[in-house]
Amino acid sequence: MEQLKQKILLSVLICIVGVKAFAYDIEAKNEDGVTIYYNWINDKTELEVTYNYNGYSGNIVIPNSITYEDKSYNVTSIGYHAFYECKNLRCITIPSSVTSMNEAFYDCTYLSSVNINDIEAWCRISFAKSFYSNPLYYAHHLFLNGEEIKDLVIPNNVTSINDYVFNGCSELTSLTIPSSVTYIGANAFYGCMRLNTIFCLNPIPFYCAKKSTFGCRTDDLRDSYDIYNYATLHVPMGSKEGIFNCL
After folding, report:
1. Which residue of 64, 83, 178, 220 could cross-link 95, Cys pair, CB 3.0 to 4.6 Å?
2. Would you place residue 23 in the very low, low, confident or very high pLDDT band (cuts 50, 70, 90)?
3. Whole-angstrom Cα distance, residue 113 to residue 139?
């Protein structure tokens, strides 16, 4: 009898924990009719995409904002494990309103493309110091307004390129860093295996968080190696040594 009570209690606890783990505040359909689940953040002034118990699949377009009870709320975050193990997720569209992602795409191994509409906004996103926060870790292909980015030109008004921003974007072949950039975060271009040309337009050395900022990896072993064995660096006359040393 005592064992039966313990089993019943354990079952109740599992149910309670399960409900809590998969809880959400509101749900809303995007323009494609796909239901996305959200939690309130920042004193219920903004929304964060959260986990879907049944999983997200196919092509998911996250909206800039949603209207709830006749009021508009910006979607500014993609929460912890929001797309956890979504094996059927193929494409994700991230709006410019999103400013943070927290290990949201862990084990999304079949994700094949990421769509954005604003490079400047993308450079500002906080990826919680984790490879799995950025969908590019699996997708590798980044599209700007429907066109794949291979020759990346950072906009002139960008001052910082955050950690992990282009991590895994293996189709990049060239990169232009404007004179406005003063900081490049850790692993910002890690895994950009086809990056063979870098243009640095700032004669004053910018700061890189660590050597792995431009680290790369092989397809099989994912071993780090020095990108400057494979890429050509173009810098303003007289600034080569300073900029090279800061990368």
Report:
1. 64
2. confident
3. 5
- Are 35 and 29 contacting, i.e. CB atoms less than 8 angstroms apart? yes
Which band of pLDDT confidence, cut at 50, 70 and 90, is reported for residue 31? very high
Residue 45 identity = T
Residue 217 has pLDDT above 80, yes or no: no
Q: What percent of the chain has pLDDT over 70?
A: 79
- Mean pLDDT, residues 44-53: 96
Q: Are residues 141 and 134 in contact, defined by beta-carbon separation less than 8 angstroms?
A: no
Amino acid letter, 53: Y
In angstroms, rounded to a whole number, what is the distance separating the alpha carbons of residues 51 and 63? Answer: 16
Strand locations in 8-94 (E): 26-29, 35-41, 46-49, 58-61, 65-68, 71-78, 89-93
CA 140, 144, 234, 200 torsion-angle sign = negative
End-to-end CA distance of the chain: 68
Lookup result for tokens 């992602």: 101
**Whose CA is closest to 178, among 197, 204, 146?**
204
What mean pLDDT comes out for the span 78-103?
97
* pTM metric for this prediction: 0.83
Residue 143: its H or E element = strand 142-144
Largest CA distance in the chain: 84
